[in-house]
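Whether sequence alone determines local backbone shape is best considered at the level of individual chains. We regard such an encoding as a compact summary of how the chain folds. The sequence in question and its structure tokens are set out directly beneath this paragraph.
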Amino acid sequence: MPTVNLRGLTFDYVDEGDAGAPACLLLHGFPQDQTSWDEISAGLMAAGYRVVRFDQRGYSPGARPGPVRAYRLAEPVSDAVALLDHLGLDTVHVVGHDWGGAVAWGIAAQHPERVQTLTVLSTPHPAALARAMFTSAQGLKSWYMGLFQVPGLAERLLAPGSRSWKGLTRGLPASHRDHYAERAREPGALPAMLNWYRAMPSDMRSPSVRWRRITPSTLYVWGADDPALGRTAARLTGDWISGPYTFVELPGEGHWLPERCAPKVLAVLLPLLGEV
């Protein structure tokens, strides 16, 4: 897989499709990597799009800085923008899932001029999620985020292949589940992945974290059976979008939308891309 040096770190990335075609940037979540997008990527290229995806910090072996502060959301947002700069892409269609969705929200909020359209799978707008924590059962659904804060304990409980790991990845196709477990066993990988969660309290306390309303044309796709991200946060997300907005609920679907229901995602994603 090709690598690229961005901001002093080395990332694994994939750049596929016609170099002159409109480009899509695909951002993965936890505990995934860029292979979570395999089926969606194939569908996008078949429709005539260029696809860029990369293993984000903590997931690329050459991009696992130690300090928790290196995983504050501004860092992966800057990584993604640096990759676009490296590839000479002024604007792209941004698509994110799980933590990649949080990065996608960040890019659209901080760099709207780089975003042709925004599509987020599963992950509500961060401000909507924060509000839902105090107005619904979202706090109970997010119990694992507290566990992930404890260095050492979380790594032991979530050892790839353990009962907790299997519970965390329940619903994933076996091939993806086994691949992600293998990647998480790499030296330093699991602590780096968990550092995304451990950086959250600092992000929330920082006065510089001010979530602007989203202006690019936005599609938010949520699985109605998502065990971690509930209906209240999904419903509140629209309050933070001032541009054109479409919300799609997928009945009977859970959290792993890229791996589990790529055809359904493509069916609502491709019309949005074709509008711009």
